[in-house]
Amino acid sequence: MILNFTVEDYVLGCLLNNPEYRDKLLVIPEDAWTVPEYREIFRVMRDMYFKKPNFQVVDILPMFPPTVQDTIGFLSFETIVTVFFNEYFEEFMNRYKRRKAREICEKFIMNDGDVDSLIAELDTVRNYQAYNVTSLDMDKLLVAYYDHIEKLYMSGGRIAGVPTGYPKLDELINGLQKGTMTVLAARPSMGKTTLAVNIATNAIRDGYSVLYIDTEMPPFAIMNKIMARGGVATYEDLSKGRLTDEQWKKFVAGFNWLKGKKFFLRSHNLTPRITVYDVLSEIRKIKAQHKIDLDLVIVDYLQNLEVDSHYRSRYEEVSAISRTLSNIARTENVAMLAVAQLSRSVENREDKRPILADLRDSGQIEQDAHVIMFLYRDSHYWSKEEREKRKNDPEANMAELIVAKNRDNQLDTIMLYWEPEKQVFVEAKEQ
């Protein structure tokens, strides 16, 4: 019966029947399916995969009308034999790439679109490689392991990941590791966006490439934070353009320093709705257009990302977002720093230092993250009177960066000093 199937029939049938192949759900573009009904089935399967990777066909059938249920039943029945999946999947993806290439070439012929953008689109299609899970035998594993340790040895024992610019933190977590997700979480107004921007600025200063995906602030606000962190002027003065002649010179110097840096900003002002799938799309677009491998992707913040379909609960939705970001970090080999909100339960305790249970909306975040850090400032909870009374107290600007999960090392707290006018956190001299 397989010979009577189209390639799409067989690939979709295998994905329905065999959980072993469902990692492909994360990398198949939605428009790879030419049959609208198949796109609908694919979307539901992809969303179900985040909740229950080993789902059965009966788990998704109630989500479809009877006509689509009949199609699913037919595909599932006719693809009991799934051993030819890899060959069919390769042909499926090749057909998709040929269609996309044809569409782009037609745009060239019709002079429809910017030439450079069309070339970048074509290059994206040409370089597209679907993610494949492969195992390593011991000999291959040893070669890869040797190369990894040799690289670390030749570097003089430097940290393996992307440096955050905070030496004590980098020593503790070995930098932001490629292929993993690190979570930076805090209650509102603690300074988590500022710390994330500081880390991004430190990374581009050291020559690393950074994609910053912001879901809340206008792009110029992010740039003001970068400039204030560089000592150009205070964040408030930059926001109002209230600069002295000397500060203007510093601004121009900072402007020239930033030119050519490998920093990419995706702001909600440009596209109000940012989905978790947009993160993957943006990474691949930058790789294709700029011919670089991204080092660090910062998402600010995780719970503000959207997904394409509806979930029964907020918990399931955030779990899907977290799992997808973690998978993207692994498949695209980038260090993923996800900023996250904490639940209000923190406010109800006498000791308001965050704990892992405070991660808002989902325990899945704790499972997916390689490292989890909490930013905490005790002075945030001071009364107005106490804040005025202790405004010259060094404790007023002290912050704690609590490493609450660290798969590769011990847990600890890094003391930081907060300079609000400069929008910068620096490591405290004494710990």
Automatic annotation (TrEMBL):
<dbReference type="Pfam" id="PF00772">
    <property type="entry name" value="DnaB"/>
</dbReference>
<dbReference type="GO" id="GO:0003677">
    <property type="term" value="F:DNA binding"/>
</dbReference>
<dbReference type="GO" id="GO:0016787">
    <property type="term" value="F:hydrolase activity"/>
</dbReference>
<dbReference type="GO" id="GO:0005524">
    <property type="term" value="F:ATP binding"/>
</dbReference>
<dbReference type="GO" id="GO:0005829">
    <property type="term" value="C:cytosol"/>
</dbReference>
<keyword id="KW-0547">Nucleotide-binding</keyword>
<feature type="domain" description="SF4 helicase">
    <location>
        <begin position="155"/>
        <end position="431"/>
    </location>
</feature>
<dbReference type="InterPro" id="IPR027417">
    <property type="entry name" value="P-loop_NTPase"/>
</dbReference>
<comment type="similarity">
    <text>Belongs to the helicase family. DnaB subfamily.</text>
</comment>
<keyword id="KW-0235">DNA replication</keyword>
<dbReference type="Pfam" id="PF03796">
    <property type="entry name" value="DnaB_C"/>
</dbReference>
<dbReference type="InterPro" id="IPR036185">
    <property type="entry name" value="DNA_heli_DnaB-like_N_sf"/>
</dbReference>
<dbReference type="InterPro" id="IPR007694">
    <property type="entry name" value="DNA_helicase_DnaB-like_C"/>
</dbReference>
<keyword id="KW-0238">DNA-binding</keyword>
<keyword id="KW-0639">Primosome</keyword>
<dbReference type="InterPro" id="IPR016136">
    <property type="entry name" value="DNA_helicase_N/primase_C"/>
</dbReference>
<keyword id="KW-0378">Hydrolase</keyword>
<protein>
    <recommendedName>
        <fullName>DNA 5'-3' helicase</fullName>
        <ecNumber>5.6.2.3</ecNumber>
    </recommendedName>
</protein>
<dbReference type="GO" id="GO:0006269">
    <property type="term" value="P:DNA replication, synthesis of primer"/>
</dbReference>
<keyword id="KW-0067">ATP-binding</keyword>
<dbReference type="GO" id="GO:1990077">
    <property type="term" value="C:primosome complex"/>
</dbReference>
<dbReference type="InterPro" id="IPR007693">
    <property type="entry name" value="DNA_helicase_DnaB-like_N"/>
</dbReference>
<dbReference type="GO" id="GO:0043139">
    <property type="term" value="F:5'-3' DNA helicase activity"/>
</dbReference>
<keyword id="KW-0413">Isomerase</keyword>
<dbReference type="InterPro" id="IPR003593">
    <property type="entry name" value="AAA+_ATPase"/>
</dbReference>
<keyword id="KW-0347">Helicase</keyword>
